[in-house]
Amino acid sequence: MTLGILIAVVLIALAFDYTNGFHDAANAIATSVSTRALTPRVALILAAVMNFVGALLGQEVAHTVSDVLRLNAADAHHALVIVLASLLGAIAWNLLTWYFGLPSSSSHALIGALVGAALAAGSSYASVHWDTIIDKVLLPMVISPVVGFVLAFAVMLAIMWIFRRRNPHKVYRGFRLLQTVSAAALALGHGLQDAQKTMGVIFLALTVAYPATYSGENLPVWVVLCAASAISLGTYSGGWRVMRTLGRRIIHLDPARGFSAEVVGASVLYGTAYFFQAPISTTHTITSAIMGAGATERFNAVRWGVAGNIVIGWVLTFPAAGLVAAGMYEVLRVLFGV
């Protein structure tokens, strides 16, 4: 029975990774598509390839995610049900927000779901490492969008000053070409961050089910490759509803502002992954960077009403995914007799 649940956890984790890919595909390509720097199909292929490559470049975030919970390894059967409930809760929230075109955070949906299922199970079976949640999740959740907004605003101001005497049409043509590079960099950062979260959950399940085999620091190669492939395939399948929100409904971007948002978004993703091991939201980061770059045109150029709805989605994601996962746990607990 334990092996059967473990296989289900791995498969559903990869399904979550896939939904993460198509839900967050717009993060990497919306700006490039909206400025016509790339066609949608070319942008999707570029994002899918770079997602795969990015997923192979580190394991720091994966270890942070696997450290969110401490599960009772003495009852591996029950522990795996908690992980399974978490994944189902995160997927349900991902699909709901995708359907309404709301760029919520898959990262915070997953971590919120892990916390919700653990609290529903009780301290005898799982405990939450709140220091990890606060230091690696909640604080970066608040800080990264602010950093993204401020840096994108500053970078765009610098670009406006440097190219103030140049022909705007020539400048925009040059930035359209540069957006190929910046979009690729952002997609690489998305793979670096988001694929690792799935790796972390699978690794958590493996260490509970087979602690003697999976007790080291390095993730198994098959886990890395499977997670990289799942998010890459999900990205290629697209995320058109969310793309419209990021690329057009917040603000109509020009190539220079699109480039600024993508460069800043990628930089924040790399910095938090390598220096802070924090699983931040790609969605939060690029959306705030888009708003920061757009605000340099004029402050009311940003559709703050749409931005406000997105922020509400951000705030709701953590507790909502947790509640869904808690409900899933109660159903699975009866179903599996734990």
Structure description:
79% of the residues lie in helices and 2% in strands. Strands 1-2 form a two-stranded antiparallel ribbon. The longest helix has 42 residues. It is elongated.
What does this entry show, briefly?
The chain has a two-stranded antiparallel sheet with strand order 1-2.
Annotation keywords:
79% helix, 338 residues, single chain, mainly alpha
Low-confidence stretches: none
Strand content: under 5%
Widest sheet, order of strands: 1-2
In total, the number of domains comes to 1
Round the mean pLDDT to the nearest integer and report it. Answer: 84
Distance linking N and C termini: 12 Å
Work out the radius of gyration.
20 Å
* Main sheet overview: 2 strands, antiparallel
- Find the count of extended strands (DSSP E, 2+ residues): 2
Element layout with pairings:
Blueprint: H1 2-34, H2 40-55, H3 60-66, E1 69-71, H4 76-99, H5 106-121, E2 126-128, H6 130-162, H7 168-209, H8 221-237, H9 240-249, H10 255-276, H11 282-294, H12 304-336
Antiparallel strand pairs: 1-2
Helix pairs in contact: 1-2, 1-4, 1-7, 1-8, 1-9, 1-11, 2-7, 2-8, 3-7, 4-5, 4-7, 4-12, 5-12, 6-10, 6-11, 7-8, 7-10, 10-11
